[in-house]
# Entry
Amino acid sequence: MNAVPPLGEIPGEALAAPPAGPAVLSGSPFSLPVAAGDGASHGALAGIARPNDLSASLLPLLETLGWQGDPQQVAEALPHFQESFDITALRNVLAAMGYQSDAEKTALNDIVADMVPCLFLPEGRDALVVAGLDADNVEAFDTAQGRYVSLPREAWTGTAYVFSPLDGGAQASVGEGGDWLGAVVERFKGLAFLALGITFLLNLLALALPLFVMAVYDQAIAAGSVQAMAYLAIGAGIAVISDLVLRTLRFGIFSFVGARLDNIVGIEVFRKILQLPAAMIERAAIGAQASRIKDFETMREFLTGPAAPVLFELPFVVVFIAMVAYLGGAIAFVPIVILALVGGLGLAAMSKIGEIAAKDSEAAAKKQELTIEILGGMRAIKYCGAEATWLGRYRQLSADAALRGFYLAQFTSLLETVSYVVMVASGFATVAIGAFRVEAGDMSYGALVACMILVWRALAPLQTGLVSLTRVTQVESGVDHLNDLMRIETTHEKTAKPAVRGLSGKEPDKKIEGRITFTNVTMQYEADSLPALDGANFDIKSGKIIAVLGSNGAGKSTMFKLLAGLYQATSGSVRIDGRDVRDIPPAELRQAVAYVPQTPQFFYGTIAQNLRLAHPTATDDDLRWAVRQAGALEDIEALEQGSGEWKRTGFDVRLGDRGSGQVSPGLLQRLNLARGYLKRAPIMLLDEPGNGLDQKGDQALMQAISNMRGEKTVFIVTHRPSHLKMADRIIWLEYGSVRSVGRPKVVMPKTPGNFL
# Structure
């Protein structure tokens, strides 16, 4: 990609080499070194629809920052469907790479050593990546020229973006006792103390109203002084305005913390789910997975609602009780007794609330799972005419969810009623005791009214807490679910050694060739189920084409899952080039194995974006090569979508969330194959690749497989005689056991005729 033409000429003398970074960028800054004899350009990043000076600065900036990684990580961090690459997109990409950024208005000649390396956006000129300074010059990557240059320290005004490593990144480790969320919240303790200080000031200001009322009754009215009332009103007005300002500040703190936690926890929960072993998530319902992501919604609402401030208000209840004791003496026992009674009631009700809330959540989750299942299989339901059956299932689950919701609402209403009665009772008790004290001359009428206000103010957090008890229980349950999820051990993809070249162009230490060995491999999905594979043994040399034959449930898919590292064998070993797959880093294994599933699955995005899921750094030439191998290039180039300025053609045509309604099923299957070819992995797994292909597509498939002979190890699940004849070996599976392994002419006579 080339940068847009410069807005103004930037004088400078080209440097022989960049001042920092492991590689020399030449021409387009997106061009990375490619080893000789590679046969394809794997180094060029792609995916930005309209490249500009900011996109051209991305890789030079990463190099000057000393970032170590591979182009795939950069490509995966690029924005999805963003037509233009602006400064926000660039900062988000750098954040994904592990760098935080700060913006500062400055001039080029005012940049100091502490700010380098940085991105400088001069006004009216293209972006510069400042890599070094000396007394007279600035060494920078000029995105207009696509090279490093030495510039005089001119007084160009603009904005400098300084990048520094994130302190631990967005991820947090599991704290003591497995409290992951607690470790995340710990990062906001400074804001928590600030909110606590503001709450203290708010409670002091809350004393102004009752004292104002007492002064009006006992002094202003008694003395008939209008001037005194005016002064008191001014003071009360100042207190009210101050209260409004402080509450706004506190609400801003809670909103900020809620938004930050929503972002941090939401991303980490989704990241964790993506990193979970396939064995843990493949059999789980979609609704159950969605409920994991929604667990934090309740906590976010708790933080931004009225319940969270109650936790900060409770410690200051003692201030109001002390003031009641000072003004009304024995009246202070009213809030103390009520606090004790209601607190005990709340603790006793917690277990019952938790039980009711858990049943309500379970019923809602089942209803959601069925809803997703119905919407996903709507076409099949209509084909079978089974609308009444599914409506009956939905009606039953909906009724159960409504009943559980009714019980929860009823219990919540009971708590609200109790809280109301408590407040009314506290008022009666205060008036009753206060009346005797006033009659005895121990306190004034103004003090009685002030005590009434103070008692209600002291009990207000308790009332809110009692009403929010259901929400507190849900939050507690959500926290437990999150911590349970985060305690699951997974292998982070980015910690594994990449199997592709990084920015330095360095090759991996050892290239996987593709020899596959199964030794007494047994695989059980459940402890009490029959083995999906039972003592499988075979040894396949690299570069061979292997046909896998067997009836439904024979173990073909399980074999592929074990080869791809999605599951681990219950016993025995699966080896690639003599290395147990359990010892191969997941990122390296993913790069070594290309899997083409039986049913194509495409996501909302362009054809190019869907293909690049297998190889994010693939160039346009790579895409054309892959679809040509699948026999789909002409069909893709003929595609059109939209009209006028929104018209899209070829690889820019967008697919729906399921790829439906955009291209034919046959073309989708060829794109499915092209995505597998694009990966250029040494091991290729093809699961019934001939499904949905016409004669032309099948011929292209056979030619592509033939081209792989001797270069890649190809496993193909198939029953087509034309495919079986191409195989060097056939593995015949039945009931999880390997019945025979050998050449086609040896194995085929042993197999039942109904396979073909």
Q: What stands out?
A: Residues 176-487 form a domain with the ABC transporter transmembrane region fold fold (CATH 1.20.1560.10). Residues 188 and 206 are 27 Å apart (CA to CA). The chain has three domains: 13-165, 176-487, 516-755. The first strand starts at residue 13 and ends at 14.
